[in-house]
Amino acid sequence: MDEICESSEPISIGPARPRTGRHLVEQMERCGEIMTLGAGQIGLAGRPLRLFRYFSERFAGFARAAGAQERIYPSLIPASVLGKSDFFLSFPQHVTFACHLSADEESLGAFTRAVAAGAQPGKAASSVFSLAETLLASAVCYHCYQEFAGRVIPESGVLLTAEERCFRFEGASLGALCRQWEFTMREIVFLGSQEGAAGWRQRMLESVTEFAARIGFAGSIVAASDPFFGSPKGAARALWQRAQELKYELRLAVEPPQGSLAVASFNLHHDYFGRAFDIALPDGTKASSACVAFGIERWVYASLVQERAREAFDLGG
Questions:
Q1: What is the model's pTM?
Q2: Rounded Cα gap, residues 190 and 140, in angstroms
Q3: DSSP H helical ranges for 217-295
Q4: CA distances, 142 to each of 21, 161, 184, 291 (Å)
Q5: Which stretches within the chain are classed as H helix?
Q6: Least confident of 145-159, 164-178, 208-222
Q7: pLDDT (tens digit, 9 = 90+) per residue, 35-78?
Q8: Which of 173, 177, 162, 215 lies closest to 41 in space, CA to CA?
Q9: pLDDT category, 99, cuts 50, 70, 90?
């Protein structure tokens, strides 16, 4: 598959005309194995939960096989960390600020009196929120860059991995499993030379694609771009990212309206985050980076929808 990163044409995997159907997802929603518990918030039990654990372990296995150092990071991340990049200019549509009530007794008293009088808690809190200095993380990789900020890393590079809960507000596009406000992401992040980052991404792309094809998934590898905020600058960045083939996605076939669903991404950043977080190699050059991200609930969704892929799993009651 050496040609994948040399062409922007989609590379197909699996059957050309996959059979897909949402009926199994709908059945599991009716019987309580998939539970919608809030806007973009779901719970899993039974068969979907077994699939979730299967994919979680498989992607952890990819990280172990690559020699990645395991991490546990918090869901919270300081706004000042994200401010080192242009996150707030590029992805404001995803931002979920995490606030708490002001700690002074007067503010807390005003809040409790309003709730006791019948006000909705969110409305009662709107005037007594603390300064919004922290967010719920929308990706795992920013914690990796934060960990190594201002440091010199080995010439051979650093490889990190973590599975964390992430948060991206998707508005009207929210859908159980396939597009959630809160979801689970496994990321594997490489920091090192530009050549090392490009070679590592290629190897990961080949390994993950072979895994999906072996299970029987139908889909394709496509050149893609991030959902930059819809400003002229954002549109220009998306075009540049696509032209440079900095982002590839593994998209698996599902039913309309999605048609296909991105379940993994393979990203090159050149030295963007190395410069933003002052991460250097021993010769003084800024580190380049690459990351691979897996949306675990989306793999579960595609497994349930694609009939041939379902045959690879024991989905007994």
A1: 0.89
A2: 13
A3: 232-243, 272-276
A4: 36, 12, 15, 11
A5: 23-31, 46-66, 79-82, 87-90, 105-116, 121-125, 141-147, 194-215, 232-243, 272-276, 296-305, 307-310
A6: 164-178
A7: 999 999 999 999 999 999 999 999 999 999 999 999 999 999 99
A8: 177
A9: confident
Among 15, 38, 50, CA closest to 299: 50
Amino acid at 35: M
CA dihedral 122, 140, 55, 49 (to 10 degrees): -20
Q: How many CB atoms lie within 10 A of CB 100?
A: 12
Q: Which two tokens stand for residue 22?
A: 């949402």
Residue in the structure block whose two tokens are 């030295």: 271
Asked if 246 and 205 count as a contact pair (C-beta separation under 8 A), the reply is no
Which is it for the CA torsion 145, 147, 150, 152, positive or negative? Answer: negative
